[in-house]
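Quarterly update, task 2.4: zinc ion-bound model.
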Amino acid sequence: MGSTMNIENLKFQKNITINSNDSLLIIDMQHDFMPGGALPVEEGDQIIDNINLVAKIFKNNNGIVVLTQDWHPKNHKSFASSYAGKSPGNKFQSEGIGPILWPDHCVQGTQGAKFHEKLKSDLANAIIRKGYNIDVDSYSGFIENDKKSETGLAGLLKSLNIKRIFICGLALDYCCYFTAIDGIDFGFEVYFLVNLTKGIDLPPGNISNSLENMRNKGIKFVVKDSFI
Ligand code: VGL
Ligand code: ZN
């Protein structure tokens, strides 16, 4: 049975104040995930202004702002174009790749891999790249899909004494979701900024399943107006 959780029936935390033990993780706000990009997330550009506002709140309260950047070599094994007869969206599962194949996107050095110019990337303390190993994808900002190689994000956050992480960006049901789940496994208290993210919903129902799994994992949901 698929779940029917949606954003409208989530409960949100309120009255959150940010301090130096908090980090905002802004996931993959790159051209290729915006409308018109190679792997567009519907309304992906509509969250940029509010992400900037929240990043400002973190900055003003000594929180740490981190951007992730999907950063694939060309011919990456997550691209459908790497296989004869495969198309984007086709199901595909192998060690470190799947459950579906993607259009070519966020290829290193291309315009599509750049952050959207409206994103205030100057507010970021650090940028973590991921997906740079040709044979392995990395949805999570923490660790690659084979669950072996870390990106260094957990070490960075631990060394800065970060306890709580707040996740926003693209896409809700892929990179944001896996970053949130791994955040719990790496020992952080995880908050998911539901109205500062947009999903792909492939396969259909994926957004709802992601929200339910996050709730069951103890991830807390917040919105932009949860901060005071
Ligand atoms: C993403 C699919 C492939 C994401 C990245 O940022 O959510 N999704 N690469
Ligand atoms: Zn990718």
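Highlight for this quarter: The beta strands are 22-27, 64-70, 126-130, 164-170, 189-198, 220-222.
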